[in-house]
Structures are given as C-alpha cells and as structure tokens.
Amino acid sequence: MAIFSLSHSAVGRSTHRAGTAAAHAAYIARRSTASAVLGEHMPSGPRAAQTWLKQQEASDRKNAWVIDKVMLALPLELTPAERENLIRVFVWRLARGRVPWLAAIHDLGKDAHNPHAHLILRDRDIKTGKRVMQLSERDSTNRLREAWEACVNRALETAGRPERVSRLSLAAQGIARPPERHRGPCRGLGGMAGRIGRTYGFAGANPVRPPPVPVSVASRAGRRLPQLAA
Hints:
It is built from six helices and five strands. The two termini are 25 Å apart. The protein has helices at residues 20-28, 46-59, 80-95, 140-158, 170-173, 215-221, and strands at 6-12, 34-40, 65-73, 101-106, 116-121.
C-alpha cells in the first residue's frame, strides 16, 4: 500500500557543528545503501558532494541556513525509474531548476520493502544567490507536504495505479483506524523509529495536479517525465 511520509529539518551554521551538512551528504550517497543518486547544480558523488558542501558552508554567513533535509517515502507501486522521475518532478515543482540539490534513493537490502529518498536542498539561486523556496519561513513543511502529496498521486495515476496518499490525518479523512508508521532505516531501533514521521496510508481522494514540467527538465533527467498537465 502506498503511504505518505515526509520529514523536514535543516542544518544551520549556528545550530550544527561545522561540516554537518557535508557529512550528511556523504553518508546518504554512499554506494552500499544508495541504488541511485540524483542531483543538479552540485556533485553527486559522496566525496565530491562532501567537499562541495564544505566549501559552500565556509562562504555562508555565521548564522546561515546551510541545507534543508527532506526524507520521503517512495511508493512500492512505482518502478525504480518512475520513483526517480517522481523526485525530479517534486524538486522542479519546488525550485524550477534554480537551486542545487541531491537525492539518494535507498531501496537495497533491508530497505527493499521500505524504499525512501534522502533529499538535500540548498536554497540558493544558482545565479543570484537569493532564496528561492523560502524553506526557513513559517509553514514551509506544510508546503512541502502539499507538493509531495500532489506529485505522488499524479505519479500513481500516470502509472495506472488506483492507490492515492494523503497528507491529512486519518481523523481528518474520516477513517477510523490507528495510523500506520513509516519506520525508515531506523526500524527495529526502539523509540528512534517514531521520530521519522507519521504516515496516513491510503486515501481515495482525487489526485491534486501539479503544474506542467517543461520538456527541458525531462531532457536533463535523461528520460521522459510523466505528463503533469491537467
């Protein structure tokens, strides 16, 4: 069953030890766990990404927001290629190709039945250096959740699947059952599993349609993206 899970946090120069963002990039992109590493405007190799982020952090002001970290549950119902396209569509919806990002897909070994993606977003316009997504603003996590819900549901629809997800609680959906949990890579580690993010399972609502993705994005992805036009 397709589930909804999105967790969002940030790494800042004043809130984390120097090099934290770089170490996170190297960790999530390591070959032993990531079946695929996607990205744009920054290196995708573990060591290269680590070096690049260290350089970026060094140039930031002392209280700067270095990166945003987003973890996403990926639908089992989609193929690996469809999951990659889903991530690219999601990031395009957020930033329109204007910011550096990296995503590591974990679906190997113990994660084969728990596919998920670790996404790094550096909210700096590649031309102006200004913020694009405003992820440090109030309610930014809700905006991410709305966008992810829309993109997942459209991807499932495009794949001909009947499943749909909802960011809303079961109570808000009028469903009377205990919520499921997306346990992620910390499953089996006691209380740590509950920190990853609550999920709300299947919802039969009509999908919310995100805006169209230009053909140029599909070209950069090296394959055709799902058509997202209404």
